[in-house]
Amino acid sequence: MTLKSKRKHNMFFTYLIIVLIGIILLYPIAWMFFATFKTNDEIFNSIKLLPNSFSFQNFIDGWNGSGRVTYATYFLNTFLLVLPTVIFTIVSSCLVAYGFARFKFPGKNILFALLISTLMLPNAIIIVPRYTMFSKLGWINNYMPFYAPAILACYPFFVYMLIQFLRGIPRDLDESAYIDGCGTFRTLVSILLPLMKPALFSAALFQFLWTYNDYFNSLIFINSGSRYTISLALRLSLDSESVVNWGKLMAISFISVTPLFILFFAAQKYFVEGIATSGLKG
């Protein structure tokens, strides 16, 4: 067997293994999709993947919700919470990372060590003082407990990731921009931000996923059904019926995760590139 033939065989088996692993990983999603067309009896008493018949009634019933509020409201609430949080996080984290990566100022090392140390604080420790503070500010049952930390760059993971990425960008670009008459802010906007696109996309995708799927913080800070997000609405649908219609629940769950699939595959290139290059230098 020639070397070229060996390479073709190795490539064939490599792709075969990848396809098999992909099928295994995608099977739960496929099962959830086909379960949206099934009744409770089919879900629990049959191992068949395909349903006996295809009916969209579970999607209709699921979308109508369990009360006066439909899932259109829950989706709107979710995006009203998630999108500003993502935007505020990216802007504030980028500014803070730019300061740490490119400037020298008194106490920089101490502040950076303090920033990194906050990564080790679990949410369970800070949730009580955060709730007390936000309650005194009158921010309970609205989205300010999510907006305020994002505006103030209280997500050290993203700050650290962007710092590492900025450290990998040569300072010569900054100096060239200063020579051409750019100030510090214009250098960031015109020179560095286009180069930071992969890291910014990765940070935005992470924050979108985490905030979209967040159940605990939404449960703590939101107590009105009309302001519920998708994660709270799904739990409400589960608790509101004595006999759970799992087909209906699977239908609305599938609709809920669809934006995440679309976002991940649309931004996959930037996501992988940003993760791969954020920690190479520094």
Automatic annotation (TrEMBL):
It is found in: Cell membrane. InterPro entries: MetI-like, MetI-like_sf. GO terms for biological process: transmembrane transport. The chain crosses the membrane at residues 12-34, 74-98, 110-134, 146-166, 187-209, 246-267. Coiled coil: none annotated. Gene3D superfamilies: MetI-like. SUPFAM superfamilies: MetI-like. Keywords: Cell membrane, Membrane, Transmembrane, Transmembrane helix, Transport. Its main location: membrane. It comes from the Bacteria. Signal peptide: none annotated. It is a multi-pass membrane protein. Residues 75-267 form the ABC transmembrane type-1 domain. One of its GO terms (cellular component) is plasma membrane. PANTHER family: ABC TRANSPORTER PERMEASE PROTEIN MG189-RELATED-RELATED (PTHR43744), ABC TRANSPORTER PERMEASE PROTEIN YESQ-RELATED (PTHR43744:SF6). Belongs to the binding-protein-dependent transport system permease family. This is L-arabinose transport system permease protein AraQ. The gene is araQ_18.
